[in-house]
Amino acid sequence: MFVDEDKYIDMLLARFKSRVTNAKEFAQTYRVLLLTASNGMAVDISLGGMPFEQQMIERSSMFEFEEGYDLRTCSAEDLIVLKAFAARDKDWADVSSILQRQKGKLDIEYIYANLQQLCEWKDAPEIMTKINQMIDSTK
User: Does residue 22 surpass a pLDDT of 80?
Assistant: First the structure.
C-alpha cells in the first residue's frame, strides 16, 4: 500500500544528497530513492508496497552494526530474492557469495516461492533458471 510517500521522500532528500537528478520523480517511478550518506556511502531506500516487502519487514531483525548503532536488516533469504530479482551482474555475484556463506542454513523453498511470484510479475522466467542453477551448484 502506498501511503504518504512524498512526505518521506521529501524528508530524506532534505537530509541526504541524491545520486540522481529529479530524485523525487525517480523514486516515485522506480520505487527506490538513491541517496548518498555523509560518509559517501551509497544508500538505496526501497519504497515498499508489495506483499513480499511487508513480509520481508516482518522477518527482519536488528543487527548491531557498531556499538550503539543498530540497523534493521533483512534475512539472507530475502536478500537473495531481492538481488536475484534485480538480476544485475553484481547482484548475481552477491547471490553466489550469500549462497556459499549460508550453505545449509537457507530456506530454499521460501526463496523459490517468493522469487517465483516476483518473476511472474516481471515476466522474467530466466531469473528462476539462473537461481536454480546457482542453488544446485552449491549443494
Answer: yes
Q: How far is CA 104 from the centre of its chain?
A: 22
Q: What does DSSP say about strands 17-18 and 42-46: parallel, antiparallel, or unpaired?
A: unpaired
Residue 122 contacts residue 85 (beta carbons within 8 Å): yes
The model's pTM is 0.73
Lookup result for grid cell 529529479: 22
CA dist., res. 57 & res. 69, Å (int):
19
H/E stretch holding 128: helix 125-137
Chain Cα centroid distance, residue 35: 15
What pLDDT, on a 0 to 100 scale, did the predictor assign at position 2? 60
CA-based angle 125:91:131, to the nearest 5? Answer: 35
100, 93 Cβ separation under 8 angstroms? no
Q: Considering only CA atoms, which of 50, 43, 46 is closest in space to residue 119?
A: 50
Unique residue bearing C-alpha cell 516476483 = 118
**Residue 109 carries which side chain, given as an amino acid letter?**
E
